[in-house]
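Hi R.,

Here's the chain you asked about this morning:
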Amino acid sequence: MLDIKPIQDELRASKIDGWLLCDLYHRDPVAYRVLGMPPGMAKRRWFYLIPAKGEPRKLVHRIEAEALDALPGKKFVYAGIDELKKNLTKLLGREKTLAMQYSPLSAIPIISLVDAGTVELVRSFGKKVVSSGELIQKFAARWTPDQLNAHHAAGRCIDRIIQQAFGQAATYVRQGKTLTEYELQQWILEQFRANLLITDDAPIVAIGPNSGNPHYEPTAASSQPLREGELLLLDVWGKSRGTDSVYYDITWVGFLGTKVPDKHAEVFAIVKEARDAAVHFAQEAVKDGRRICGWQVDQAARKVIDKAGYGKYFIHRTGHNIGQEVHGLGTNMDSLETHDDRPIVPHTCFSVEPGIYLPEFGVRSEVNVYVAERQARVTGAVQDEVIPLLA
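And the predicted structure, written out as tokens:
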């Protein structure tokens, strides 16, 4: 049974009159996560209002009348558009300010899930629509202790698999055998299956100039062989097979040679400094109990790379929230692609992954940071230098 009390407490504290959740064709996975219910048929619109005070209210179509029966509250039904509007008036009631999965000007796209027409419909009843972004943080992005334990368990496996993948690459190059990016990617996925790990997408395995493409995807038809004298980047993310398990997501780089070139080492050192600056900034703020937002963590990393003269080669945000999806619903460390002004809250996790992407090679170093009540900590292994894989 949905426990609405903590949500109502948060609504009152935020001076919001209610949280209006709605869906059609499973467009809003957040609604189902918050309500703790599996997606049903949803071929007709449903609405569920959690008011700051009083009993919830729900509105469903007559041919899907049982869609929200697992949830508490008074039920209204509709068939035609006139009945929808009539009963939507009753559902919305006297509440004036309603939170929805909406982001003004789509400033934070991951939470901008309600279509513009539905927002207009709600506003037509004289309601003020505000973003549910901070509510999502607290009721759809926080981890349980079991999820944190699953994250650590997945992390230990993935850390080991990455080092084994580097070893696999080095063995093939030493022996003069051909091993492509795609083949190494598939080898990693075999290790995932053997360790009962799953992933939404295959890992990034990128050699040389391909490592300068942050979202490079090797394929069977288009993939480069691993070559001596090139940088090898591995970006690997996965989770255990549990229903509510959460991701672990890291990036390491190695050099297929006995000595790392000065240029590679220099660029990695800058990326490492940026990574550590962002992590330290978050750790100090959490320890001191200071409210910080995602965009500020991004700036802590970006300033280091800008100062070193590589700002134009850092072309993505510093990090993203991590949850049941690798790119989770909580705060992103972003002042570039968006301006994420949501605060970082306890019991959430995010990546810190600055990068410098040059035409000849790219470097990214990624760690995961879990935030407890007064402590933020990196949850897995941390790379401190480029690994010379043939040494």
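The mean pLDDT is 97.

Let me know if you need anything else.
M.
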